[in-house]
Design goal:
- Four copies of one chain form a homotetramer.
- The first copy, chain A, is built from four helices and ten strands, in the order βββαβαβαβαββββ.
- Chain A is of the alpha/beta class.
- In chain A, helix 2 crosses helix 3.
- The longest helix of chain A is centred in the last third of the chain and has 14 residues.
- Chains in contact: A-B, A-C, B-D, C-D.
- Chains C and D meet through helix 1 and helix 4 of C and helix 1, helix 4 and strand 10 of D.
Chain lengths: 166, 166, 166, 166
C-alpha cells in the first residue's frame, strides 16, 4: 500500500539562511526525517511547491488538489504550513473522493533541534494508513476531519470545532 | 478518549551515565517527548518498570499484562525494548480482550540526537486511536498484528511474517 | 580570574517565534551553553541588549563600551552579531585599555541543532584567558586582533586583513 | 601555523551500536565537529587509535608519545578519554619538548545531542594556538598544566591540584 507524500512547504521545511539571517525554503526534509524514523513504509515523495502557507494562492491550492486527484495512490499525506492548512483541506475535500488525505505540518522548523515535525510526520503517516477515505488534519497527536478543526492562534494548537446539535 | 501509556524501559529510554560510561535507565523521556511533539492527547503515563527487554522476566511480563487488564482506559501504548517486544505482545494478547494495545520502542535512545523514538511515539499514539481492539506492534512507520511480526536483527527492523496459505 | 560576559544579541541568541514564524530575541542561551559545556570558569553574565547587529546604533555601541570600561573584570567576552562585530570591536579598542576583550558570535542560531555557537563560545572563553590586553575577534576557531579582520560575507567567514608592508 | 590533532578515542568519539545496544568506536567525529564549528584553522587530523582510556596500555601511550615527537607541527591537540588523560599527559611531558600539546575529551559522547565535546574542542584548539611549549589539559573551559590537574570522579570534572608551598 504505497503512500504519496506531497510537500508544499510551511514551517516544517524552513531553513536558516546564514547570509541574510532569514528563514527560507531549500529542499524538503521529509526524506531525511523518514530515514531518522527508520520508516519502511512504501512512500513516494513529491515536492509540489515550497511556500509559506500565508502566501499560498488559489492557483497553488488548485495545483495541490490536482496532485491529489491524479496520484495513483489512494493514501496521501500533505505537508503544509499551519496557517492556511484548513483552507487547503477544504479545497481538497471539495474535489477529491475515494482517497484518504491527511494534512500535517509543524509549529517549529525541523531544522531546529526542538521541532514537533518528526512526531507529526509519524502521526500523519500512521493515520493515513488506517482511516477511511476522507480529508483530515493530523496535528498535536490528534486527527480531525477537515471540517471539524481550526487553528487556535493564541494557543498555537489545533482544536475541534464543536459539531451542530443533532 | 484517554490513552494509557505504560513505560517499561528499552532502548527508547536509555541514558548515558557519565561516571561509568555505560547506558542506564533513569526517568522516562515520554513526557518530554509528548511536550516536544506538542501532543494534546489525553494521556496517562505510568512507569511500570525500567528494564532492558533482554532482561525482562516472566514476572515482569505478568506485571505488564496486569497493568493492561486493570487500566480503565481501552487504548494502551506500551514502550518496550525491541528485542523481546513480540514476546510481551503475545503475553498481552493471551490475556487482554476488548482493548487496543500498541507496543513501540526505538533502535536508538531518545537521549541521542538522532533517535527514531519521536517518530515511533507519534506513530504508536496515532494507531492506537483508530485501530480496533487487538494487540499490535508499531515500528518503522508500520503497524503489525502481534502474531504477524518479527524483529529482523540483521536489518534492525521489524518485518511481516507471511501468513499461512488460505 | 573571573570573566565578564556581555551579551548583545546577534544570530547566536536568536529564537524562533512560532506565532509569527519570525526569528526574535528572548533570553540569552549563554548560561545554558556553559552548562552544556560543563564550564567551571568563574563567569559573570550580563545581558546589555538583545539586538540584531545590523540594527545596532551608536548609542548601543557606547553602552557596550561603557560596560567594558566599568566592569571590574579584566577579561571580557562579548557575544555579538557578526555583521557589525568589527565596528563594535573598533569602538571598544578606542576606549578600553588594560583589558583583554574578545568578541564572538555565530553564523547559525544556537537554538538550531547545528550551530557553531558552542564551538565559538569555548574558543572565545579560552582565548580571553590567555591573551594579553587588547581587543580581539574569535571566529572560525581563530583569534584576530580587531584591526586585522573583516567578515567575508560571500564565504560567511572571518578572514585576516593583510598588514601594511614593514 | 598548522595544528596536528591526534585522535585516541574516549567518550568523545563513542557511538551507539543499535544491534548490541552497547557503545563502541567507529570513526572519529572530529572532522564533522570542525565543520559544524566552521573552523578555518589549518588542522591535520590523525586517528592514532580508538580506545577507551581505561583500556589504554603502555604500548598505546608510547605510540601517542611517538606521534607527538614525530609530528612536524609544533602545536598538537590530543582527544582522549578522561579517565587516564593525566597519565598520557605525563607520558607526553616526559618525552616531548619544544611543543605545545593540549589534551581534551568529553564527559558525554558527541553523538549524543547534549555533549560538552564541541565546547571542549573549541577550547583546546584555542589554547593550543597561544600557550607556550608545554603539556596541558583543557577541560571545563579551563586549561591546566599537566602536573597540576586531576579528575574529580565524584564531581565529573577536572580540578587544580594545589602546588607546593614556595
Amino acid at each position: 500500500m504505497p503512500i504519496r507524500v506531497l510537500v508544499t512547504g510551511g514551517t516544517f521545511d524552513k531553513n536558516y539562511n546564514e547570509r541574510t539571517g532569514q528563514l527560507y525554503f531549500k529542499d524538503t526534509h521529509v526524506g531525511e526525517m523518514l530515514e531518522l524514523g527508520r520508516s519502511r513504509i512504501d512512500v513516494r515523495i513529491r515536492t509540489v511547491m515550497m511556500v509559506d502557507s500565508l502566501e499560498m494562492t488559489e492557483a497553488d491550492r488548485t495545483l495541490i488538489v490536482q496532485n491529489c486527484v491524479k496520484a495513483p495512490e489512494e493514501r496521501i499525506v500533505i505537508t503544509h504550513g499551519t496557517d492556511t492548512m484548513t483552507d487547503t483541506a477544504a479545497a481538497v475535500a471539495a474535489a477529491v473522493t475515494g482517497k484518504t488525505v491527511v494534512l500535517t505540518g509543524a509549529m517549529i522548523p525541523y531544522a531546529f533541534g526542538s521541532s514537533d515535525g518528526l512526531f507529526n510526520l509519524g502521526s500523519a503517516l500512521s493515520f493515513v494508513q488506517v482511516l477511511p477515505a476522507g480529508v483530515y488534519i493530523a496535528m498535536n497527536g490528534k486527527c480531525f476531519p477537515w471540517d471539524r478543526v481550526r487553528k487556535n492562534r493564541e494557543r498555537s494548537e489545533f482544536e475541534e470545532i464543536p459539531g451542530p446539535p443533532e
